[in-house]
Amino acid sequence: MKITPDKISDFNKNQGDSYVAELDFLKNRCAKQDVSIDDIVSKVADFQVAVPSWALGAGGTRFGRFSYGGEPASLEQKLDDIGILHALTRSAGAVSLHIPWDIPKDIKAIKEVAASHEIAFDAMNSNTFQNQDGAEASYKFGSLGNIRKDSRNYAIQHNLEVIKIGKELGSKSLTVWLADGANFPGQANFQTALQNTENSLKSIYNGLPEDWKMFIEYKPYEPNFYSTIIQDWGTSFMLANACGERAYTLVDLGHHLPNTNIEQIVATLMFKGKLGGFHFNDSKYGDDDLTVGAIKPYALFLIFNELVYGMQNNPQNPNLAWMIDASHNTKDPLEDLLQSLEAILIAYAQALLVDQESLKVAQQENDVVKCQEILQDAYRTDVRPVLKAAREKSGAAINPLQVYRSFGVRDALIKERGSQTKATGL
Amino acid sequence: MKITPDKISDFNKNQGDSYVAELDFLKNRCAKQDVSIDDIVSKVADFQVAVPSWALGAGGTRFGRFSYGGEPASLEQKLDDIGILHALTRSAGAVSLHIPWDIPKDIKAIKEVAASHEIAFDAMNSNTFQNQDGAEASYKFGSLGNIRKDSRNYAIQHNLEVIKIGKELGSKSLTVWLADGANFPGQANFQTALQNTENSLKSIYNGLPEDWKMFIEYKPYEPNFYSTIIQDWGTSFMLANACGERAYTLVDLGHHLPNTNIEQIVATLMFKGKLGGFHFNDSKYGDDDLTVGAIKPYALFLIFNELVYGMQNNPQNPNLAWMIDASHNTKDPLEDLLQSLEAILIAYAQALLVDQESLKVAQQENDVVKCQEILQDAYRTDVRPVLKAAREKSGAAINPLQVYRSFGVRDALIKERGSQTKATGL
Amino acid sequence: MKITPDKISDFNKNQGDSYVAELDFLKNRCAKQDVSIDDIVSKVADFQVAVPSWALGAGGTRFGRFSYGGEPASLEQKLDDIGILHALTRSAGAVSLHIPWDIPKDIKAIKEVAASHEIAFDAMNSNTFQNQDGAEASYKFGSLGNIRKDSRNYAIQHNLEVIKIGKELGSKSLTVWLADGANFPGQANFQTALQNTENSLKSIYNGLPEDWKMFIEYKPYEPNFYSTIIQDWGTSFMLANACGERAYTLVDLGHHLPNTNIEQIVATLMFKGKLGGFHFNDSKYGDDDLTVGAIKPYALFLIFNELVYGMQNNPQNPNLAWMIDASHNTKDPLEDLLQSLEAILIAYAQALLVDQESLKVAQQENDVVKCQEILQDAYRTDVRPVLKAAREKSGAAINPLQVYRSFGVRDALIKERGSQTKATGL
Amino acid sequence: MKITPDKISDFNKNQGDSYVAELDFLKNRCAKQDVSIDDIVSKVADFQVAVPSWALGAGGTRFGRFSYGGEPASLEQKLDDIGILHALTRSAGAVSLHIPWDIPKDIKAIKEVAASHEIAFDAMNSNTFQNQDGAEASYKFGSLGNIRKDSRNYAIQHNLEVIKIGKELGSKSLTVWLADGANFPGQANFQTALQNTENSLKSIYNGLPEDWKMFIEYKPYEPNFYSTIIQDWGTSFMLANACGERAYTLVDLGHHLPNTNIEQIVATLMFKGKLGGFHFNDSKYGDDDLTVGAIKPYALFLIFNELVYGMQNNPQNPNLAWMIDASHNTKDPLEDLLQSLEAILIAYAQALLVDQESLKVAQQENDVVKCQEILQDAYRTDVRPVLKAAREKSGAAINPLQVYRSFGVRDALIKERGSQTKATGL
Question: How far apart are CA B149 and CA B152, in angstroms?
């Protein structure tokens, strides 16, 4: 199943979408505020989000999993799926590989497949939270922070191996998510575990190529339910500082305690030049890994407001590694990802619409009512015409989900691959 | 300070707002979906939200309070303030009195002031969480659920007195919010406290005029920090059933534990014909009493989606008693209320936009992606032109906040009343 | 591996435990308070908790599972494991079966195995949250509350089948835990789903033998992450009332939103005669299913305080169906269950120690400080001598965990069953 | 009202408490573990907790306050109240002053009163969350982090003034709790606010005498309900590092989001040598400021377990500034403080009982079950005999609360001071 630019272009034409007139309205309205809709369209068109290789099949919970037909059975097929997303949106131009689930057997062949879809290799992900068959050391009681040296070393070696594969593919960064922690009070000594983790991370950092970055993820709980070694941004930030300049914190939207003000964390990290990566999803209760924007779209906008501000004012941060990190328990994974991409770009466009100059003045005057009006004015604006313009500009489908369904993509995939395949991943 | 229809009409004319063209766009888009924007405009124009008499001055926290100038010093002045809100929006046509803070000295005079502003008397509120000077019994350890009979009886009598005042004013309902609970384990026997509360509520219910309704509010914590007798909707619903047909549950958006699915509670109560009242505010952590829509506007929309569905499908419920129950710690209280009214009407209009027929079909087919698309399509629509049309239709200001500021209302109030007045309330 | 009374008795004798002197101290202290330690010893000795058939192997999370050696591979072996627990403690004299994981092939043989261990068959559990191979209808979008009639009927039939198996085994109750809900707003109509659920539960209730009870479990989230049909005790209570007298609510300690006051829910349900079953575990974040008492032992005590009060004052409730519902991700499952049993009996003994008469007086006098002192005095007492006496009295091991380790039970099981078996379950 | 050592000694004698025999049992049991009960008794006897000057009267909530009779009306009377606590317990030998509530008029006289009660002056507290009459700049929109320079400078000057007063009294540290934050998204620029706060803190730090320490408190919300500048330990730690060596983080138990693992934060800060102060209280929902140990005594024990470990292994931390920071909404404030002191010392004694050597071995072997057993063995031990021995040793009452009631302290205070006094504070 390959979706060519021609097919999309034809579909766009026949659709007769009226977004252009709506966009003109928006331009007129914004003209008063010294905000350029054309600039926003360009920025939205340029925005690229990586898709992780494990997110193309059905996800599940500890209570089970309901399979979805046509799941990719190989890394090539996963790249093909991302290729479909990218063709439809021109926003999904990168893959984030997860090792050992997606070790490429033939590097050159894989690079060619990726290139054929114009997909880059973004951050590499290691996995030290599961034991693989024949593993020489166990991660049951931890990996980089394990009290046993053999497990720590084994996990360090695995990360170095991931870097090696990434180098061959052209990736430039490593994401370390550490499930290490404890299920019970007393199980681990907090200080020892933290010290071991810091030492292990430094060992990996020392093996990092000079043009690579390392992202340290944090998470308060799950799969451990009493404590997690890197439980919050503060711990990650402390560890990144200990490692060195090219170590950064990675924020995953689902990895916070109830009611956390995430946008403030984002602002703090960007202020300090230590925000490196960003994982999108949405949640109501915990790390629910739902479609981006499905539950708290205003929080997503507020976070993007800080990201946009930081990208404009804090040049000391690297280009952020954006990735969708969701689980598709109920929906067609590709449709789910299309909805996530849409929500991301909407929040981004709305954040770009914020009248930063007026906001600054209102903040200086403590005009709280006006501050709120300025943010909400941007948020309440229907920016979907902006996304449509951006997509048409870059050769994508004006309405990607509609095209996906019209083209019968899922049925074609099931026909090709069968209904019983199961993608590697969670 | 009185804002006349003429002044508003003049301002509207000179403003040259372009909303009409935007509204036409919306009409065209919706025409395809068998949704009538004109109907929505009418419904939005008809929607009335009560303003509580205690919410016109600055609020505070246990850490203190920062006064706001020009606060109303009497019930008459409070009605004048609501009159300003109603003149500007035609959506705030009711007051909800709080006794004993706002006992009218001259019923007839007060009714005349209210009538002059076209303000009705909505639900009456009793207060049994504070001791008044000279009180014959103490509420320190509870009121309707107190273990001591004298305190229970005193609280029952107070509620009957509130009903009496309400009858004279033309109100038709009583809201009972009970702070009763315990700060420490063991302090109270849960079963005894619940039984006492049920008996006391029945005594009040028996004193209710035949054309009155009683609303029972629930709240998990604060001002008691271990337990609250009516801690959740389940307890309120159980008590309302025990009292009788004209007893209903009242939902306050801020009165829930973290992550509660409030829209589901709303749907359940409407399904059972037991939703009576609704208090608007917003919150991030607890009962924060912030401006409506300031934190979680999508949740507000989802709740309105259930309210609209219920109003259309569950005739066994009464007309809901809507009220804004927010605290104004930082903003000009009147501006804060204008922002709340705006957010309420936006969520209401968006909910009215939901294509219920298509949604039903998609739900039947378990097309989860489409279900989400339908809701989000309504939510992402910029419905502010609808509100503007509704307001112009009913003689209100197209842009109420702008008019409020242009007319220099706050300055005028400070001039009239001084900067040191303090409204009764929290 | 069979642990005989003789072996235990011998071990007890050689141990020379000094608990008798400690118990005498306790008796002297309590003599002043009109509390009989001997009575408490008897009650503790009589207390029986069911072990679910799925909890004898290693548990896992969506991120994976670390196997434990010697897991039972059949229902017979599961009963053998519970037999070990019961021999060591004389407190685990019941099994709670989960169908279809543990459908007995030969009813008579299974009953004999159970009888040989003196294990009764407590509540039966149905499973409608996973699709089984060859299923005629899917539970992907729900079971009893599914919008499709075929899935609802299939789930009803499954429950009736579970009752049938239970009847043959001698069970007298059915536990229904419903995972039904939605991952996304809009996915399901709340009112329709609730109505369907109520109707389905009534169909099952109508198929219940006259001497059976039905327990309706509730849970706020997981495996659905937006809404769950039976989200709280209020919904379960409402449904139980709709079904009839022999339908009750079941409380699982892990199934609550953050900060919920569970003991108050227990008190309310007992007051209304509607508490039927109780699932023990502990948690810090969500439904973590940790060892009972591992995180919040004081909350467990407060809950037991209400349970004891209810058992003494609310005869309208049935004998509660107690069960441990924990997951063993890290520990030896049998050791984990031994620790859970210990924590349950400690909390029970402490609750029995509460001086109810003095507490009632202190509550009547609003002597909050004394109320707390009374509860904490019971809680701070080291009641382990009581448990030891109760166990010795009933022929169990004074120190079960010590005996388990001394006898090398796990090694023996691994020897018998191998290290690669995997018990059915989560 | 003065409680002399003689009176206490007499009461102790007549009481005939049987704790000595219980203590002997404990000694025998612990002898096997290489833990010395005598050492623990000594450490418990030496432990001193400061009482804040604002905590001797009734507290309240935003919904009101119920006065308590006999509240201290002056700083002298507050010291007298702490004197009573210290005489009864010998554990409350310090006061923590809050300025401007408790500016001493006559330094020398105040020092004499304190000395007469053997009370030291612990950390000084500034207050920049309320405007005082005649204030030259407003804290309504923040103090050290205010966007306006005049408010920032005013707040800096206030802190320097507090240091000055503290120097005269003999205090050696300053606690800065900053309420600064925002009630609404957009109200403040996170980066600017953080930068301003850092600069202001540095200004204060530069004014710190060389032998002084500065403690930076954090809190996620309240009195601001959208964001707080110093929202978590990570932010406080970052700011303390920016200020310098003598700046430390202060942990208040109530200042965390739901489900936070506080003991891990404590361990991290001690590991890094940056834990300076500690505020005790307990809570179920938010910053409830309840009696220490009233809700989560096991969590308190786990925290003390880390504190004890840190005190033994991390000499780079200063002697911690311990303080009770609770609000007395329901109980007699002095009785409430006595209960808090009891709970603190119980947790401390239990933590000292932990067999650290065995725990280390069990952790090394990943014997999770044994790790839990070791902690719980200490926690389940009734250590009240240890406290009694420690108190008798130091000349305090064996049972302070009993003595307080027997001596009729509250009645005497009401007689002396009247029933209408109101202590300054919240």
Answer: 5
Q: What is the pLDDT of residue D248?
A: 98
Give counts: helices (H), strands (E), chain C: 16, 13
Of C140, C191, C375, the CB nearest to B186: C375
Cα A291 to chain centroid distance, Å, stands at: 12
CB A311 within 8 A of CB A287: no
Residue D304 is encoded by which pair of tokens?
């003390």
Burial status of residue D414 (CB atoms within 10 A of its CB: 0-12, 13-18, 19 or more)? middle
Q: What share of chain A is helix, strand, coil (3-state, %, to 5)?
A: 50, 10, 40
Closest CA to B147 of B187, B176, B183: B187
Please tell me the predicted confidence (pLDDT) of residue A361. Answer: 97
Confidence of residue B359 (pLDDT cuts 50, 70, 90): very high
Residues linked to residue D214 through DSSP beta bridges, in sequence order:
D174, D247
The one-character DSSP state at A375 is H
Strands D227-228 and D275-280, bridge-based pairing: unpaired
C151, C180, C225, C261: best mutation site toward chain B, by most B Cβ within 10 Å?
A: C261
Our CA dihedral for C63, C66, C72, C75, rounded to 10 degrees, sits at 0
Question: Residue D331 contacts by C-beta under 8 Å, 6 or more apart in sequence?
Answer: B183, B184, C368, C369, D291, D339
Measure CA D187 to chain center: 32
Beta bridge partners of B94: B50, B120
**Look-up of token digits 């591992």:** C294
- Here the ipTM equals 0.97
Helices (H), A189-275: 190-206, 233-243, 262-271
List the one residue out of D284, D283, D287, D157 whose CA is nearest residue D224: D287
Tell me the longest C-alpha to C-alpha distance in chain D: 66
B371 → closest Cβ in C184, C258, C302: C184
- Tens of pLDDT along A237-287? 999 999 999 999 999 999 999 999 999 999 999 999 999 999 999 999 999
CA pair distance B194, B191, nearest whole angstrom: 5
Determine the Cα–Cα distance for residues B41 and B383; give it in Å rounded to an integer.
10
The Cα of C282 is separated from the nearest Cα of chain D by a number of Å equal to 13
Contact between residue A196 and residue A228 where contact means Cβ atoms under 8 Å apart: no
Contact C369 D339 (CB under 8 A): yes
Which element (helix H / strand E) includes B374?
Answer: helix B368-380
How far apart, in whole angstroms, are the C-alpha atoms of residue D229 and residue D248?
A: 17
Backbone phi and psi for residue A167, each to the nearest 5 degrees, phi listed first: -60, -45
HSE of A194, CA atoms in CB hemisphere, 13 A: 23
Phi, psi of C106 (to 5 degrees): -125, 100
